[in-house]
Write the structure tokens for this entry.
Amino acid sequence: MPTYKAPVEETLFLLNDVFDWSRHGNLPGFSDAPPDIVEAILEEGGKISEKVLQPLNLSGDREGCVRNADGSVTTPKGFKEAYKAYADGGWIGLAADAEYGGQGLPYTLAALINQFSASANMAFTMYPGLSQGAIAAINEHASPELKKQYLPKMVSGEWTGTMNLTESHCGTDLGLLKTRAKPNGDGSHAITGQKIFISAGEHDLADNIVHLVLARIEGAPAGTRGISLFIVPKFLPNADGSLGARNAVSCGSIEHKMGIHANSTCVMNYDEAKGFLIGEANKGLNAMFVMMNEARLGVAMQGVAISDVAYQNAAAYARDRLQGRSLSGPKSPDKPADSILVHPDVRRMLLDIRSFNEGARALAIWALLQADIARRSPDEKERRRADDLLGLMTPVLKGVLTDRGFDNAVKAQQVFGGHGYIAESGMEQFVRDARIAMIYEGANGIQALDLVGRKLPKDGGRALTAFFEEVQAFAKENAATPEMAPYLDGMKKGVGDLQQATMWFMQNAMAKPDNAGAGSYDYMHLFGLAALGYMWAKIARAALAKKAEPGMEARLAVGRYFMERTLPETATHLARVKTGADTMMGLPAEAF
Amino acid sequence: MPTYKAPVEETLFLLNDVFDWSRHGNLPGFSDAPPDIVEAILEEGGKISEKVLQPLNLSGDREGCVRNADGSVTTPKGFKEAYKAYADGGWIGLAADAEYGGQGLPYTLAALINQFSASANMAFTMYPGLSQGAIAAINEHASPELKKQYLPKMVSGEWTGTMNLTESHCGTDLGLLKTRAKPNGDGSHAITGQKIFISAGEHDLADNIVHLVLARIEGAPAGTRGISLFIVPKFLPNADGSLGARNAVSCGSIEHKMGIHANSTCVMNYDEAKGFLIGEANKGLNAMFVMMNEARLGVAMQGVAISDVAYQNAAAYARDRLQGRSLSGPKSPDKPADSILVHPDVRRMLLDIRSFNEGARALAIWALLQADIARRSPDEKERRRADDLLGLMTPVLKGVLTDRGFDNAVKAQQVFGGHGYIAESGMEQFVRDARIAMIYEGANGIQALDLVGRKLPKDGGRALTAFFEEVQAFAKENAATPEMAPYLDGMKKGVGDLQQATMWFMQNAMAKPDNAGAGSYDYMHLFGLAALGYMWAKIARAALAKKAEPGMEARLAVGRYFMERTLPETATHLARVKTGADTMMGLPAEAF
């Protein structure tokens, strides 16, 4: 049976020592969360993850969700109670506006709590996670009436949210979507169509489900410019907030999936269901992007979350498992064999994961802070810069942290040998659950295209320039500290390769966009590695400042490991970017 | 629903054009298999895989095996009939001695047929595959009486075989095993103990199951020098070959696993079961190694097999799926969207897989031919050289082809987007099934250690020298052909990095063995890539020789893709090898 311990101490080190949390104390929400409050929140959030959510992870996977004959869906045993505890604890509305019952705390904190929850039980965490995304989209784009009607119930967890984009013939290419909306004459619309892959589309955790649905209003332009966003509740709320009539939306079936079995993935049928427009007609994608961007960061966090819990279990197994002897002579001659931690190759697997985990958590926090600054800073220039960086890094985080998170789950499973292939170990579940994070909210290849095709050139490359400037300033600031040399050297090598790859695109992709497409995936990973290198340099600086404290020396060693073992990959990515599109695009389609 | 087409043409090209099959015509078995016979065998073997085994793959996964209250195990619907068809077709004994009812054909052919079968249905193929390994071990080490008693029934498929090594406290470290054997006084032994992870340990496909069991004879030395190998049949055969009494061996439970659900993975309990010694007492590991080496090659083939079928399905999906438009303008303006094959990043995923598949199949054939030469050549020097190369390459094939095979299954699944995460697509099953190949028959980290710790230094590095000489001779032979330049350059770069890594070990690992352990995994992958580069150079030469024929130009382009996109990874592996063990071994165990 796997176990989980929320990394509260590690998170506090990053927030306080690496990112100097207190310096944001002037921002709304942050003023309510000085370090001691942050610590208390992380500890409480850690506890509910460890004690309530984690014990349901394995059983939830085995039981899965069941769709009943009447179209209702039953979640695994214990989920209802756990959800109630989670909602009652105020965890769903941690960062939501106080006006609607939220606590108005920094988004960064809410996302870190979600990371703990996802480590403990990823399938569970999707239910409140989707609510949070829907809350954000409604909050930003819906009318005051709709906000008043929906947000308090969603923030409290009485109702949950979903996002309905995909149809069977369109996933990435939303311009093809067919679900239609007909004005009812009373301001509402009648929504008709079928959506697939709707996470948490139907379940028994909450009284009502608030679907955010993309549809095309009759007569709207073709393609993505004719898509609108609607609220379609399962039950239509009465004016007093009580539940009224059942809406014409139902779950047609649920999918049998590789993982996240405890989250119901539904085919949703809309049959002239009553819907309420969010924001302007035909501008639905804009509104949905609020939810999608938040969801993409949430998915990136899932990558880190699974990597973290997988590491914890693999390290514990490696410490306990006795097998073979050290190459340099027995280390526990009194025992029948040494712990497998004496084998360098076992340490390689563990350190590959661990050196990712701390760097990735730092990178996530860095990006989450940009999100908070972009929304809360009083300084317009600061807001713009943070928004630039967030936009740039969102696809990098989503693509790289989920790819590597999955690879790490596989590595952690490998530490267990044959035992890792058996369901009881829980390790194979981590692999199956982590796999979806590379796919949903925009497959990682789409993230790479978003990065290279949209985010890089946007505003004349302003965001990328801001990133490079920040890294260069950091390098300069620490150039005189000799102990920083191994970290700065690694960082500069990674960032240098990223600069070269960027240059190559500038010279070769303008005239031939396929050259950008062909290198996009490697560029995204190169970017992620360079950014992780920067994070490790920041971590090293903070650790050097309190070197004598426990854990700091290990941290510095893990950082060196990252520089020695992981960062060299940037060279391969750069080499691939530079090969361009000719070889791959030269093959005719029928040759595949 | 996934589909499968056996790659008969591709295999024939490799056998005939790349490896000049006919030149082995003087060897026993080969003389019965001139190219037209080989073609007929591959076509028939392809057919049974496509028509009988593949249709049971998805349903077999969903149904899984069931252990009944009486300890018997029921395999999924259709497996019994399919097994009978497979056995009746003579496929199990294709390479077995004619003396025992086999066809005596080259082992290479049998392994290629197994590769087709594993693409079609990996879980099924394990049943006859384990029999083949057991047949080989019995054939090489058992007494004439035991051979006569067991082999004909196993070759015909009436009985199947298993290998029993693992116990709950010992997998890699067999020296710890506790199962004991007590002489009965009549030449037989009473075997008592528990074995776990026994594939095909109990099932309903055959009349009898012949367990090959490692156990310790009372009073034997501790460690690996006190292990003996026994035949323990489920039913004790009478002198006339009919089945006698039920032996005291039973299936205590079956495992719930990540994949290969249709193969029963059993806990086997031996309770003074009657066993018959194979070979010498206390030399059991030697005898078992015959089976293990054959099994390791078989597992390597599974990596290629899954990668192949996953590619076929991903390529078909990519051709048909319409989504988005080409970056260089619409390619199918008459359709609502272009096929996703217009996107370079989709081609990247497909070509990563495909450029592996052909190279890996070539590498497998090259190694399989060494196995045949080592056993069948009349020339002792040739036998020894082939045996050297086979020993050297077995861990490389097992480790690298299964790691990359799994990664490719993940990539192929990614091509499907969300649809790949759904069970019906079959793509997620490929991932789950492929995962075990990295673990069983010696986890891949153990393969790396075997390569670096045992195979490299053996006989003063004779095997590695033979490999380098072969590659150098090939380079020299083709140096004057300008069209070979891109392939030779890539190959030489990969092999050069391998030479550097070898040199680094020679200089740094003698005094400090952990330096070898720390770099072993990267060295193994570096070796695999260098060998694949060599294979692609050989393929290119054969393709250039018949350039005008269909498919050859595509093949040459795929080979260039491999050189441009995959081979650059060798630099990262070399860089990692050179970092040594210091950083990772410096961390105290409690810091993990």
Remarks:
- The mean pLDDT of chain A is 96.
- Residues 284-320 of chain A form the longest helix (37 residues).
- The first strand of chain A starts at residue 66 and ends at 67.
- Residues 8 and 282 of chain A are 44 Å apart (CA to CA).
